[in-house]
Every structure is written in structure tokens, then in C-alpha cells.
Design a protein that fits this description.
Radius of gyration: 23 Å
Bound molecules: phosphoenolpyruvate, manganese (II) ion
Structural class: alpha/beta
Largest sheet: 8 strands, parallel, barrel
Number of helices: 10
Strand content: 15-25%
CATH class of the largest domain: Alpha Beta
Order of helices and strands: EHEEHEEEEHEHEEHEHEHEHHEH
Strand order of the largest sheet: 7-8-9-10-11-12-13-14
Number of strands: 14
Number of domains: 2
């Protein structure tokens, strides 16, 4: 962090600021120019609030020269993190496709879809048991019973399971879950991030909040990692913009950006990003081509009757065709 001092500041004010920095274990390096004095701060500035420093009488401006996230930062961990779940690797050149229904609706449904996505080449099964729905009157998921059905599908197919945790009070039901999803609506539920990070080292699939900046996403990953769990997978799933013809606006450019800023694997969710089943294949191809470490795709054996997100769900046939294309793209990368 660099602090630029006001031109009319007197010595005593600068000394006070230096003492304040020293009291926070930061070593101030003052350099006096003919017009401007600046203070370079050396030490752990993570606990120093730049807005507070900037508000001081003596300070003209403050420039951060380091990102506020440490654990997620590629600068301190240059090699890619490879996250492993149930024998499946994601990141560092390992590509994984997670597929399955938005919500678990019945044992027959989830087992049939699990078999179909496995046959198409998916490496993990998704399915929501606890669903974050906009309306309290919409289907809320089968809860514990849904998790039991996912376990049956896992046993039948061998596919590791990915499912969303909304409330930490349910964590003990998640023993057989391989990857815990923290959904877009909970990306900044800091207590949940802290609790899940401290409780488990199971991979956390952290979806970008619909109005979250890249830095906010990385700070949320930091919450999980700083609490003790280094196994975080970032997921771009589209954000809210002025555009209303798509469910969300997919921010594909964040894939190379996140890879530059962080060592964590980056997945893309083409289903929630677009809201339309016909767009899932082209967007999956684009996400693969731009360097995503994996995809999470909604697949339903009867989308017209799905209890949640039918319009964006691929049929098993469409998913099989998409997997073909993804394999072709991967082979030329
Ligand atoms: C989901 O994966 O079904 C879901 C609700 O995702 P998101 O949190 O990205 O909306
Ligand atoms: Mn969904």
C-alpha cells in the first residue's frame, strides 16, 4: 500500500501517521520528493482499512498495490491447485463435467439421469436437495430425502455427487456428498463460508453471486480457505446486467482473468448463465475453448415436467451430443 501525503501536511502529522502504522506492525518507508511525500507500507496490510487511512487529514490518497486475498492469490501459490473429489480431479489440466437435474425429484428420476450422464461421459452428478427458490411457494427440494436419493444414484453409477448446502445446520446430512456447492445467493453468506471452511476439507464449489465482482468472489473463496479448507472451485454462472433476454449475462472473460489472479480451478455453468437449453451446447463449447477447468450442466430426462429449471435443462440426448463436441474441443486445445 502506498500513502500519498498532502502537500501542506506538517511534520508532526506525518509522524503521527507513521506511529499509527507502526502500531499496526507496518513499517513505513517515507520518501520525500520536492513536491510530494509518499509512504510505502511494508508488512501485512490486510488488516488496514484503506478508506480509513484515506480519510485522515494528512492523506491525499491511498493506492493498494496488493490484492486483499492471500490464500486464493496466484502470486503466493504460482502452480494450479488440483481439487480432487471422489477420485475425480479438477484443475491443473484436469477437466471435469458435472451433470444432472437442477433438483432431485425422485429416486427413479435421479438414478435414470445419473446413468444417462455417466454413459455420456460426465464425471460427477449434480442435483439439488435444498433449493434456493425466489418464491416460497415454489418447489423447495426434497431435503434429506433428496440427499438419500443422490446417494443411491452414486452407489448405482459410482459418480461422485455435487449438491448445494444452504444452511450449516444441515451439514451432518452431507457425509456422503463429495462436493458441497455454495450457491450464487449465498456467495456472501460469510458465516456459512466460515463454518463450512472450518468444518470440512471437502471441495467447495463456490458460485459467483449474481451481482458479485471478481474480487468479491475471490474474497469469498478467501473466507473458506482462511477458515481451513484450501479446496475451493470457483464457478462463473452469469451475472445480472441490463440485458433481460437471457437469464443472466455470462461473463466468460473472467475465466482467463480468474486463472491469472488465482490458482483455484474455474468452472462454468452454461445452464444458469443462459436459461435456455438450446444455448447450453454452444456456451459449453466456448467455455471449454476459453480454458475452463470444467462445466456444470443441468440435464433432465423430461425437461417439460421438471420441478425446477426445465427450460434450461438439456435432455440426455442433447447432453450426449454436447459431450461429443466438448471432447473435440479438448482434443485440439
Ligand atoms: C443451481 O445450481 O441449481 C443453482 C441454484 O445455482 P445458482 O446458485 O448459480 O443460481
Ligand atoms: Mn438450477
Amino acid at each position: 500500500m502506498i500513502i500519498v501525503i498532502k502537500q501542506n501536511a506538517d511534520e508532526a502529522q506525518v509522524e503521527n501517521l507513521k506511529s499509527l502504522l507502526l502500531s499496526r506492525n507496518i513499517t513505513p518507508h517515507v520518501s520525500k520528493g520536492s513536491l510530494q511525500t509518499i509512504i510505502g507500507c511494508v508488512g501485512d496490510v490486510a488488516h488496514l482499512d484503506p478508506d480509513l487511512i484515506e480519510a485522515l487529514d494528512v492523506v491525499e490518497s491511498v493506492q493498494r498495490i496488493q490484492e486483499p486475498y492471500k490464500s486464493a492469490n496466484r502470486k503466493f501459490h504460482p502452480e494450479d491447485t488440483v481439487v480432487e473429489a471422489g477420485g475425480v480431479k479438477i484443475g491443473g489440466g484436469n477437466f471435469a463435467v458435472v451433470a444432472g437435474p437442477c433438483s432431485v425429484e425422485s429416486e427413479e428420476q435421479v438414478v435414470a439421469i445419473a446413468r444417462a450422464v455417466k454413459a455420456a461421459g460426465a464425471s460427477m452428478l449434480r442435483g439439488g436437495a435444498f433449493k434456493p427458490r425466489t418464491s416460497p411457494y415454489a418447489f423447495q427440494g426434497l431435503g434429506a430425502e433428496g440427499l438419500r436419493m443422490l446417494s443411491v444414484a452414486k452407489k448405482e453409477t459410482g459418480l461422485p455427487i455435487v449438491t448445494e448446502l444452504m444452511d450449516f445446520a444441515d451439514i451432518e446430512l452431507f457425509n456422503d456428498v463429495d462436493v458441497i456447492q455454495i450457491g450464487a445467493r449465498n456467495m456472501q453468506n460469510f458465516n456459512l463460508l466460515r463454518e463450512v471452511g472450518a468444518y470440512t476439507k471437502k471441495p467447495i464449489l463456490l458460485k459467483r453471486g449474481m451481482s458479485a465482482s471478481v474480487q468479491e468472489l475471490l474474497m469469498s473463496a478467501e473466507y473458506v480457505m482462511a477458515s481451513g479448507n484450501p479446496n475451493v472451485i470457483l464457478c462463473e454462472r452469469g451475472i445480472r446486467t441490463f440485458e433481460t433476454s437471457l437469464r443472466n449475462t455470462l461473463d466468460l472473460g473472467v475465466v482467463p482473468l480468474l486463472h491469472k489472479l488465482s490458482h483455484l480451478p474455474v468452472m462454468v455453468d452454461p445452464s444458469h448463465a443462459t436459461g435456455h437449453a438450446y444455448m447450453v451446447e454452444p456456451v459449453s463449447v466456448a467455455a471449454t475453448a476459453i480454458g475452463a477447468d470444467g462445466l456444470i450442466i443441468e440435464v433432465h430426462n423430461n425437461p417439460a415436467c421438471a420441478l425446477c429449471d426445465g427450460a434450461q435443462s438439456q435432455t440426455p440426448e442433447a447432453f450426449t451430443a454436447t459431450m461429443e463436441k466438448i471432447r473435440k474441443i479438448r482434443s485440439v486445445l
